[in-house]
Amino acid sequence: MTAEKKIRFIAVDKSLFFPTLKKRVEQYFSERRKTRYANHTMVLKTIVLLSSYVLPFLVILLVAPGFWISMCLWLVMGAAISGIGMNVMHDANHGAFSKNPTVNKWLGFTICLAGAGVSNWKWQHNVLHHTYTNVANLDEDIKNRGVIKLSPHETVTSFHRFQWIYAFFFYGILTLYWVLVKDFVQYAHFIKSGLNRQTKPKNLQMLASMIIIKLVYFGTFFALPTLVFHIRFDFILTGFLLMHFSAGVILTVIFQLAHSVEGTQYPLPNPEGIIEKDWAVHQMETTVNFSPRNKWLSWYIGGLNFQIEHHLFPKICHIHYPGIAPIVKKTAREFGLNYMEHQTFMMALRSHVAALKKFGIPCFNEGIV
């Protein structure tokens, strides 16, 4: 039985919050004659981010600068691939970049620039994370992986008391783990759990494509520089690891600041598999915005600082989130819902560290949500 059949959102008292909000947001776009998809600003951003990833690598190959300049270029690539993931890939795989599904499909494949597969990401993110946000054993973003506990409904040991210190190291190896192991682990897990309902031939095709993507990826980053351009292998390996570590820290921290912070809830379904609240209300209670007035940060992280708006309207391109945020906030307050936000990035980061400390205490009450 799939997660979708096991867990349902059924409110005792049906809320008109989301129907009201949806109508107001639709009115916002119609009155301004705006598309909810990407505009020329988003297209320009896409070009800038893709160029910031490709051009430094070309410089490394063709110019072969010294070690320290090369490391700086690898860092730029790490920041660029994070930006591509949070902006281009993320919007495209939500169907929010363009009204043309083909455009979304091909831009969604930019995830391959990080050596990862797109199908697993959609199941992990679009289905599990967006439907069951902060629900233990379903939301992959707070999944128990032994080393770090991101939910109050997990058994912890004295070792986890220090997770607020060492967590950021493990955040740094996220994308490398994804490239090497995670895709294959999720491939097997999603088939076993029933989330992946594809036929066996389709899944074998998916597995073959994942292997090919990774072979091409590692061939591009290791065989091409060393065998064709005769660049030292240790230079390439160090830069590659630096790129992935920087990308891992950036991506993980940004996503954690929206859900794994103080004040968010971690509801559990009742024995019948029901969470007794509206799905939209659940999103409001498990999601926090941060740095709403920082335009530079918002540009780089793809509007993920407006995470409430994203979770309620994932098919709207992120460039519109600052515009609809006041509507969401006003409507939430009208219905007595808490619109949670941290005014600065550092406030959100401190709150995440505090949450890590809390979840790492062995005697922490697992009943707290």
Automatic annotation (TrEMBL):
Highest rank taxon of the organism: Bacteria
EC class name: oxidoreductase
Documented EC number(s): 1.14.19.3
Transmembrane segments: 42-61, 67-85, 164-185, 206-229, 235-258
Pfam families from the UniProt entry: FA_desaturase
Keyword match Transmembrane helix: yes
Domain Fatty acid desaturase, first and last residues per copy: 68-341
CDD domains assigned to the protein according to its UniProt record, in alphabetical order: Delta6-FADS-like (cd03506)
Keywords: Membrane, Oxidoreductase, Transmembrane, Transmembrane helix
Keyword NAD: no
InterPro entries referenced in this protein's UniProt entry, alphabetically: FA_desaturase_dom, Fatty_acid_desaturase
PANTHER family the record matches: DELTA(5) FATTY ACID DESATURASE C-RELATED, FATTY ACID DESATURASE 2
Name this protein carries in UniProt: Linoleoyl-CoA desaturase
Organism ancestry: Bacteria, Pseudomonadati, Bacteroidota, Cytophagia, Cytophagales
